[in-house]
Amino acid sequence: MEKILNAARGAAVALLVSGGAAIAADVPESDDAIKVILNDWTGQHVSTKIAGELLKKMGYNIEYVSAGALPQHAGLAQGNLHFQAEVWTNNIGDLYPKAVESGDIVVLGDLGLEPREGWIYPPYMEEKCPGLPGYQALYDCAQAFATAETFPNGRLITYPADWGTRSRDIVAGIELPYNAVAGGSEGAMMAELQSAYAAGDPILMMIWQPHWIFADLDLNWVEWNPVEGECVEEAQERDTACGFQQASVEKVVWGGFEEKWPAAYKMLSLYSQTNEEQNAAILAVDNQGRDLDEVVAEWLANNEAKWQRWIDEAMQ
Known about the structure:
Layout: H1 2-25, E1 34-38, H2 42-57, E2 62-66, H3 72-78, E3 83-88, H4 95-102, E4 105-110, E5 116-121, H5 125-128, H6 137-140, E6 154-158, H7 166-173, E7 178-182, H8 186-199, E8 205-209, H9 213-216, E9 220-221, E10 249-254, H10 257-260, H11 262-270, H12 275-287, H13 292-302, H14 304-315
Parallel strand pairs: 1-2, 6-7
Antiparallel strand pairs: 3-10, 4-10, 5-8, 5-9
Helix pairs in contact: 2-12, 2-13, 11-14, 12-13
């Protein structure tokens, strides 16, 4: 009898081991590379690289592909790109909502960030532009924000050109006497902001948070009229302008992703980041000069209990 029980126990263990191996063998479900999108700001690099490294731990073949914030949606909808960790829903263009409605792009849920976007300025500019932080003050003190190239108009530094034209559209729509000048890159924008701040020079800039710059500099936001519901950026008037529709930050995949890589789909649905986590990582990369991959590896080492749960649940 004991031999029979031992044999039965052995068979059961073998079955469990076999079952575990079978589950592991099913992942990756395809050897094709999951093409993970990199945009051109550091916070997105952090959230993307962490997700990509977790997929690698599950056995997936990962390829990082650089794409613009608006052009990326066509690639996702067509299946040429597969995962984007940070779609800011107030800067999506016309294609994105149509592709989501048709199912060509699937929203996995919020990443977990609590974002804000708008125009910022150093506090010392309130002496040169009385009435700030209210946006109406900008009409009366455009020259306080002017440069030799823009005078008598003020100068507003906006997002890089391939991020869209939202600031420029608002400036034109409410007839604000400012020249909207596209920043060359996130790094160039931050360098100019820090330089102007150190010199006490005027500067007005479109920016977002979470971002390490708010841990480095004291900055104020331009305030707009409150609005119930959505702020329609494309249809604003001088006296009632509401500024910028505030975003949620969504994780999205190509419409065929779940069928092709179901375990990866589930893990990415569970994956999250917080402002605090991302701010610390951005600060390390952009302000302390640390390597992005090193910072990502450090996050993984410090948060194994968190991400292992995501992987375990996805593999069930």
